[in-house]
């Protein structure tokens, strides 16, 4: 995981509009009308009690007053949110998506020299023109945009988290003038903020990545027109993942084989969960702990993850992946396995930004030159459907019981995170008492 993180924002519009509307009954009716209207385009038919795993503890919205109170947006964040509605580019070159395509979501911050490598690798992926590539940005950076705008090998759509701390120069989720810093004592310094379990106050740069990941997941699955009705898998990759030419065909194969070969697997992966491993190179499929490089899953799994929003948002760790391993997955009640091939089809190459300092043995990048070796066997699909599955039962690394690295103690971050989970489901959670309060 990178050092950099993002933040996100909320819908300030509601907060400002609501009191006015409440003044008259007419206003209330108007609001309901607005909500109904917007829900048509936002969520289609949504029934959270139906689709999310029933989980009363995790789903206790009343404690949070439910109504998303998203931060007041800036001009830039507003304009980016509008831009998220633009149709994909390259529709003229690739008017149709293939049947059963696997959508690819690439989430990025601001490392253009890495992004260049990722996009170059994606351009050589067999089958990439059959699908849609969504690039989710944390922050607004021209150099990053230029790279994405140059893509001609598939449909591509950019989205920007309007609540990235990088978009707010004065106020939450960015840095606010009255905020506590580092190990400040809030009562002595009269500053704002809740320290994490180690006594440190929030750092907008640090929290931004977990916020971005969560905003992106919620937006892609539950809101974005291009993806909210997608019935298949979505593959997630990051700005420092080198993608092999056979990645798309392999993930298609794995996804097709999963129901038969590993019905208990939640996901498919392009790479081993040990980011330094190139794979065992055996003649078999591997089921193991879900990894964070090139993972794909479907809506059923997303609903299950979404139903654990409180676990995700309250765990005091600023890393989304460690949060998943230490609290969300363990809450599913059984080990979470993923299905992958015996050779990696994606490689993590960023040594900068690895938070355990484990970059030494991994493939490294120097000014855009990456030394990931792509052999002939990595250029074509190399997974056989008659292979058996080798199950790696021992799940190494972060587990239930791990207390977290901290960085996620501020009530405002937790609240914003929960708001992301419910901002697209507001219609369901709006009750008459909400309207009266
Ligand atoms: C939502 O799902 C629940 C459980 O299946 C059902 O009882 C309820 O009537 C549904 N609500 C709507 C609005 O469809
Ligand atoms: C939900 O939270 C509220 C407020 O904390 C509490 O009164 C209520 O009992 C909780 N409901 C459940 C089902 O836990
Ligand atoms: C989605 O994946 C899960 C886990 O592999 C599987 O149990 C479920 O049936 C799949 N859902 C759909 C709609 O294919």
UniProtKB/TrEMBL annotation:
Catalytic activity: an N(4)-{beta-D-GlcNAc-(1->2)-alpha-D-Man-(1->3)-[alpha-D-Man-(1->6)]-beta-D-Man-(1->4)-beta-D-GlcNAc-(1->4)-beta-D-GlcNAc}-L-asparaginyl-[protein] + UDP-N-acetyl-alpha-D-glucosamine = N(4)-{beta-D-GlcNAc-(1->2)-alpha-D-Man-(1->3)-[beta-D-GlcNAc-(1->2)-alpha-D-Man-(1->6)]-beta-D-Man-(1->4)-beta-D-GlcNAc-(1->4)-beta-D-GlcNAc}-L-asparaginyl-[protein] + UDP + H(+)
Main location: Golgi
Annotated InterPro entries: GlcNAc_II, Nucleotide-diphossugar_trans
SUPFAM superfamilies, per the entry: Nucleotide-diphospho-sugar transferases (SSF53448)
UniProt keyword list: Disulfide bond, Glycoprotein, Glycosyltransferase, Golgi apparatus, Manganese, Membrane, Metal-binding, Signal-anchor, Transferase, Transmembrane, Transmembrane helix
Membrane topology: Single-pass type II membrane protein
GO molecular function: alpha-1,6-mannosylglycoprotein 2-beta-N-acetylglucosaminyltransferase activity; metal ion binding
Biochemical pathway: Protein modification; protein glycosylation
Any Gene Ontology CC annotation: Golgi membrane
Cofactor: Mn(2+)
Keyword Nucleotide-binding: no
Enzyme class, spelled out: transferase
Transmembrane segments: 12-35
GO biological process, one term: oligosaccharide biosynthetic process
Superkingdom field: Eukaryota
Subcellular location: Golgi apparatus membrane
Keyword Membrane: yes
Disulphide bridges: 180-191, 262-265, 313-417
Binding-site positions, Mn(2+): 240, 348
Binding site for substrate: 138
Record EC number: 2.4.1.143
Protein family membership: Belongs to the glycosyltransferase 16 (GT16) protein family.
UniProt-recorded name of the protein: Alpha-1,6-mannosyl-glycoprotein 2-beta-N-acetylglucosaminyltransferase
Origin species: Macleaya cordata (Five-seeded plume-poppy)
């Amino acid at each position: 995981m990178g050092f950099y993180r993002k933040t996100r924002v909320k819908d300030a519009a509601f907060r400002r509009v609501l009191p006015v509307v409440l003044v008259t009954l007419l206003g209330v009716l108007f609001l309901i009308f607005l909500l109904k209207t917007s829900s048509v385009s936002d969520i289609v038919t949504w029934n959270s009690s139906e689709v999310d795993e029933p989980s009363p503890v995790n789903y206790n919205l009343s404690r949070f007053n439910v109504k998303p109170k998203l931060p007041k947006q800036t001009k830039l964040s507003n304009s980016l949110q509008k831009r998220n509605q633009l149709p994909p580019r390259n529709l003229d070159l690739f008017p149709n998506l293939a049947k059963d395509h696997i959508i690819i979501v690439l989430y990025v911050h601001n490392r253009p020299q890495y992004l260049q490598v990722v996009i170059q690798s994606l351009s050589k992926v067999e089958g990439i023109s059959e699908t849609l590539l969504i690039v989710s940005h944390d922050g607004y950076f021209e150099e990053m945009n230029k790279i994405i705008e140059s893509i001609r090998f598939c449909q591509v759509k950019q989205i920007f988290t309007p609540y990235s701390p990088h978009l707010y120069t004065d106020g939450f989720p960015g840095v606010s003038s009255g905020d506590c810093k580092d190990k400040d004592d809030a009562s002595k310094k009269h500053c704002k903020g809740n320290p994490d379990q180690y006594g440190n106050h929030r750092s907008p740069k640090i929290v931004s990545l977990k916020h971005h990941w969560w905003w992106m997941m919620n937006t892609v699955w539950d809101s974005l027109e291009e993806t909210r009705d997608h019935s298949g898998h979505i593959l997630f990759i990051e700005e420092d993942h080198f993608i092999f030419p056979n990645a798309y065909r392999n993930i298609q194969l794995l996804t097709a084989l999963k129901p038969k070969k590993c019905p208990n697997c939640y996901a498919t992966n392009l790479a081993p969960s040990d980011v330094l491993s190139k794979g065992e190179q055996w003649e078999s499929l591997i089921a193991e702990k879900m990894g964070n490089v090139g993972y794909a899953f479907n809506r059923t799994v997303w609903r299950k993850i979404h139903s654990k929003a409180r676990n995700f948002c309250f765990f005091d760790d600023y890393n989304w992946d460690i949060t998943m391993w230490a609290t969300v997955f363990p809450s599913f009640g059984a080990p979470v396995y993923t299905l992958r091939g015996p050779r990696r089809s994606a490689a993590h190459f960023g040594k900068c930004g690895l938070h355990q300092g484990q970059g030494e043995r991994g493939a490294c990048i120097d000014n855009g030159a990456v030394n990931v070796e792509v052999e002939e066997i990595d250029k074509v699909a190399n997974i056989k459907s008659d292979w058996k599955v080798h199950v790696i039962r021992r799940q190494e690394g972060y587990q239930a019981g791990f207390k977290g690295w901290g960085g996620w103690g501020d009530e405002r971050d937790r609240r914003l995170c929960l708001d992301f989970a419910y901002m697209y489901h507001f219609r369901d959670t709006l009750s008459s008492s909400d309207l009266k309060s």
